[in-house]
């Protein structure tokens, strides 16, 4: 996806207009976000040029959920998978959301906003870093340091260094880094089982970033509630 396909301002206008502004680029972008956990990972889309996934998650969730439901009308196979998870694999799906994103709102805590990232930049900018003297260390290599020191003042050098450092960090999927620290083998087993089961039964590929798709999670929860209500109703009918 082109990183300049859409700006955060365009998305904010879209939400503010209650989706009444017809912007093809916004709709194309939203379609890709809605496919997170299926054909896309979060890192396939974000960071965009001027915003991160954390910034996107700050937009009106309920309004965008309504758009997600419209998206599902044209992508019934995805909706079928979400229903299948709710009916048959909800416990396993819930277990792979632990512990980092047990609740949907926890996703906002995992993915940082640009403002939060900029704050980290400002904090870093007060301290002269210790540099790695290794030519294979990318932006930390000795030649880069000498070049910047020769051409710029100390303040500019620090800005350049940390800009490149933060930008590279943005290109990483921070959540994957967190999860790589986990030694929970049962979670890996459940992830493998869930995606394999969906592929065999529904003939559609899913990936472990499904748990970071806020709107898919909301749909699953909606189905879980509907199924629970239906089962309780049937139970009352047959008990009488």
Overview of the structural elements:
The chain is built from 14 helices and no strands. The longest helix has 26 residues. With about 240 residues, it is mostly helical. It is globular, with a radius of gyration of 22 Å. Helices cover about 65% and strands about 0% of the residues. The termini are far apart. It has 2 domains: about 170 residues, no CATH class; about 60 residues, no CATH class.
Unreliable parts: 124-129, 131-140
> C-alpha Rg, in Å?
22 Å
Structural class: mainly alpha
Helix content: 55-70%
Oligomer: single chain
| Count of discrete alpha- or pi-helical segments spanning 4 or more residues | 14
The total beta strand count reads: 0
- Summarize model confidence as the mean pLDDT: 81
Distance between the termini: 57 Å
* Beta-strand residue fraction: under 5%
Shape: globular
Question: Can you summarize the main beta sheet?
Answer: none
The ordered H/E elements are HHHHHHHHHHHHHH
- How many domains, in number, for the residues? 2
Write out key terms for the chains shown.
240 residues, mainly alpha, 2 domains, 14 helices
Could you give the topology of this structure?
Elements: H1 8-16, H2 24-34, H3 42-45, H4 53-56, H5 61-73, H6 76-88, H7 90-96, H8 106-110, H9 114-124, H10 142-151, H11 154-171, H12 174-179, H13 185-202, H14 214-239
Summarize the structure.
The protein is mostly helical and 240 residues long. It has helices spanning 8-16, 24-34, 42-45, 53-56, 61-73, 76-88, 90-96, 106-110, 114-124, 142-151, 154-171, 174-179, 185-202, 214-239.
């Amino acid at each position: 996806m082109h990183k300049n396909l859409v700006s955060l301002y365009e998305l904010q206008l879209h939400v503010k207009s209650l989706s009444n502004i017809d912007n093809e680029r916004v709709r194309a972008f939203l379609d890709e976000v809605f496919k997170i956990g299926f054909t896309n990972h979060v890192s396939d889309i974000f960071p965009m040029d001027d915003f991160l996934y954390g910034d996107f998650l700050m937009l009106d969730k309920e309004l965008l959920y309504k758009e997600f439901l419209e998206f599902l009308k044209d992508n019934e196979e995805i909706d079928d998978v979400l229903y299948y998870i709710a009916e048959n694999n909800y416990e396993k799906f819930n277990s792979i959301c632990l512990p980092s994103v047990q609740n949907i709102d926890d996703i906002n805590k995992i993915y940082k906003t640009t403002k939060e990232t900029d704050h980290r930049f400002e904090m870093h900018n007060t301290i002269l870093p210790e540099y790695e003297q290794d030519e294979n260390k990318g932006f930390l290599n000795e030649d880069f340091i000498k070049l910047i020191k020769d051409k710029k003042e100390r303040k500019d050098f620090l800005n350049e260094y940390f800009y490149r450092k933060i930008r590279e960090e943005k290109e990483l999927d921070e959540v994957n880094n967190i999860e790589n620290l986990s030694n929970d083998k049962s979670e890996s087993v459940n992830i493998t089982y869930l995606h394999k089961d969906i592929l065999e039964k529904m003939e559609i590929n899913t990936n472990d970033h499904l748990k970071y798709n806020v709107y898919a999670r909301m749909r699953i929860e909606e189905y879980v509630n509907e199924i629970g209500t239906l089962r309780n109703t049937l139970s009352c009918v047959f008990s009488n």
